[in-house]
Structures are given as C-alpha cells and as structure tokens.
Amino acid sequence: MHDRREPAVPAVRVSDRDRDETLGVLAAALAEGRLDPHEHEMRSRRALRARTADELAVLTADLPEPAPTRSEQDRRDLREWLAEWRYWLGGAVIMSGIWGTRCAQKGELTYYWPATPLGVWAAVLIAIAIWPRDTDGSGEGSGGRTVAR
Q: Locate the DUF1707 domain: which residues (predicted)?
C-alpha cells in the first residue's frame, strides 16, 4: 500500500528527515481532528521505527496533504508573481523587436507603441502585488495582505 501522492520505493531505507516529515503530517492530522490521540500515538511510534519508505507511506496513505503554512503560501505567491514579470520581460523583448524591425524598414524612429500594452500589463502586476488577497476562500478579497514584499 503506497502513498497516493508519491509512490514509495519499498526497498529504499528512510532517513531521520523522512521520519520527521511523516511525523509532521501525522501531527497536522491530529491538530485537524483527522486522527484521535491514540491512533496518532500508534502511527507516530510506527513512524519512528520505520526502516523503509513503504512502511512510512502506509502511515499517511489515508490522510490528505496538509494545507500549506502561511509562509509557504507567501513564497509560492511570490514565485508566481516573479514568473509573471519574466513573462512581461519576454513580451517586452518580442514587442520591442517588432517595433525595432518596423523602424528599420521605415528608416526612422516611430512612436514606441509597446509602451501602452507593457504599461497596462505592468500596472496589472503591480495591482496584484498591492491588492488585498482572498485569505478566507470566500472570493471577497478580505485578506489585506500583499503578495510581494
């Protein structure tokens, strides 16, 4: 019986870090009320004695992924926001290339038209960074937290 999220290799011996990660999942399940204290204690003991990945996978196979912590979510949001800026930069290079090619064909510098779409795109990315984020899942945007700091 393997963990549904990531198949375990039965013959692979686990490290103390692997055991600690499993204990963290079990502790989160206890805190959420998914495990009662007795079952948590029994699974924790088995996790501490586990020698292979298969033994650990069995202990958490019936538990959902724990929700990310606020700091983990903040890091994920920042990575996504920075990725959007990389897309913006790629768009700037492409549009500037098109503009430069047209200028070379005409033999004169013309209005830098990429400023308009790039400006709107940048404004949206900045608004995403400062707009309150929905933290309660209701879609109402009542978070008050910024994405990038």
A: 12-64
